[in-house]
């Protein structure tokens, strides 16, 4: 099986950078396109004038975008070190499995590579498994990197 377009969601964690490295290795082997995304919560009050009256909330969104861009820049350097140029994009929308699934569909990818923190027991019960949620939301193959 060959992969033409690989997507990696990046959140700035070390495990997401490990996923980028693995995806870059696969992309290099298959001469695939590599896309890195970082999800940022969409403003739920887009049309509400009063929403941005709070400088704190406006600053939050500015910082969220800056953090996403910084994580993508660092991730693209990991891909470059593996010999692959990556397309990077901050995706405004839901920061959940639906957001990854929608981005994967929109980008027309045929493989999602993502990291898993490997939570177990009580932590998994409380925090859930983002990778598992993505597996349940998409028909696209998902490769889970654990370290």
From TrEMBL:
GO cellular component: cytoplasm
Keywords: Cytoplasm
Entry's family note: Belongs to the universal stress protein A family.
Subcellular compartments: Cytoplasm
Name of this chain's protein: Universal stress protein
Residue span(s) of domain UspA: 3-146
Keyword presence, Protease: no
Alphabetical list of InterPro entries matching this protein: Rossmann-like_a/b/a_fold, Universal_stress_UspA, UspA
Domain of life of the source: Bacteria
Pfam families: Usp
